[in-house]
Amino acid sequence: MADPIKQFELVHLVPLKIGGADFGFTNSSLHMFIAVGVTAAFLLLSTSGRRLVPTRMQSMAELAYEFVAGTVRQTTGKEGMKFFPLVFSLFMFVLFGNLIGMIPGAFTVTSHIIVTAALAMLVITTVIVYGIMKHGTHWFALFAPSGLPKAILPVIVVIEVISFLSRPISLSLRLFGNMTAGHIALKVFAGFVTAMAGAGVLGMMGATLPVLMITALTALELLVAVLQAYVFTILTCIYLNDALHPGHH
Amino acid sequence: MDPVAAKFLGAGLACLGMGLAAMGVGNIFGNFVAGALRNPSAAAGQFTNAIVGAALAEGLGIFALVVALVLLFVV
Amino acid sequence: MATNTSSGTQVPSKGGFPAFRVETYGSQLLWLAIAFGLLYYLMSRHIAPRIGGILEDRASRIASDLAAAQTMKAEADAATASYEKSLAEARANAQAIAAETKAKITAEADAERKTLEAKLAADLSTAEATIAKARESAMGNVRSIAVETAQAIVERLAGASAEASRVEAAVDAALKR
């Protein structure tokens, strides 16, 4: 059976070494640029007409914009719209990173933990830096909810700090784990097909079962790809809300 | 016990956590659908909460998967 | 569902899960920063302002169209009101003119009738006067004839001429009967 892990291997397309460290342009880098290119092309070309009555593609671009803008407005309020370019970039990058990974033969950018961790750290760093810039030390009230008895306050503060620190970890691991697990499952079932088909006519007939399974799993993975992009976006919005309104839990 | 065998056993045991996370996610969506059937007009407004809750529950299952992957490939 | 069909050299590694290989992190972070930075730049400078502008334009266009429709409806209402007002004025005018004309015609007819009546009355009185004069002269003629006749009769019967004044008195007395 083919190794289900091989699909995550990085391949150097253009080797590059800076100070002994490896900064080569890999297939992962290529697919990052493909995701960015597809996003930018979709959003820029479809809206180049700036039509009052939108074309189909412009309508889709507006739909994506309105969807993310609505999520941002709903969770962070009107002042959260200053983070809209960041949230929209994250949504489109994760969405197209996931979706392009569903094309057979393509590389899934978001199946590498360092990529999802970097995106999650970007969000959490934005929350901390903006929160302290805007609210100063008042921002740390986030860790001490008001109206609590003094006795249990230390415990709560410890729990809140741990919960805050676990956010980037869970945010990055969730996306990475979903993508990795889904692609491994698909690859394992694909391995069943080749293994069974090699076992003669009866095996070939039996191999239709895992093919059906792969079809169903592909549909599920497409749903997961979109859903995880949405989950990443809405959790980003919820965390950004803490930077904007640290008091309101 | 053979350390390699112990590693694979540990990875398999860690994956039980994913099953438990699946129970959590199922519980959330089951209750969401039950609530939505009782009051369909309020369902649309709570869908985001259901998704966020499911994502948080699923995240913990993903931790179990990561533990399994670490046992298989890193340790 | 992906296989590395692309040509190239595999990143040298000590095996293990690709995502946990620390030596690949530098390259991934560098290119992620470049790619995501590019996307963020495009998003914040071009895409978000453009789509936001399109949506804002549409919203303001719809609002202004609605306002224009509102003013046009108000104008139409005003036009209807002024039309109805002028219609009522015209109707009132027509009624006034009709009444005036009627009054004028009535007055003219009255005046004409009055002059005609006056003329008729004058004619009547002249005619009556003429008749009275004619009658008087006729009566005068009858007296003188009667007086002469009576004198002649008296002369023939009595053979003497009668005194004129006595004959006249007798005639008058007879005429008076």
TrEMBL record, chain B:
Residues 9-71 form the V-ATPase proteolipid subunit C-like domain. Belongs to the ATPase C chain family. It is a multi-pass membrane protein. InterPro entries: ATP_synth_F0_csu, ATP_synth_F0_csu_sf, ATPase_proteolipid_c-like_dom, F/V-ATP_Csub_sf. The record marks 58 as: Reversibly protonated during proton transport. It comes from Phreatobacter oligotrophus. Gene3D superfamilies: F1F0 ATP synthase subunit C (1.20.20.10). Keywords: ATP synthesis, Cell membrane, CF(0), Hydrogen ion transport, Ion transport, Lipid-binding, Membrane, Transmembrane, Transmembrane helix, Transport. The chain crosses the membrane at residues 7-30, 50-74. The keyword Cell membrane applies. Its main location: membrane. GO terms for molecular function: lipid binding; proton-transporting ATP synthase activity, rotational mechanism. Pfam families: ATP-synt_C. One of its GO terms (cellular component) is plasma membrane. This is ATP synthase subunit c. It is found in: Cell membrane; Membrane. F(1)F(0) ATP synthase produces ATP from ADP in the presence of a proton or sodium gradient. F-type ATPases consist of two structural domains, F(1) containing the extramembraneous catalytic core and F(0) containing the membrane proton channel, linked together by a central stalk and a peripheral stalk. During catalysis, ATP synthesis in the catalytic domain of F(1) is coupled via a rotary mechanism of the central stalk subunits to proton translocation.
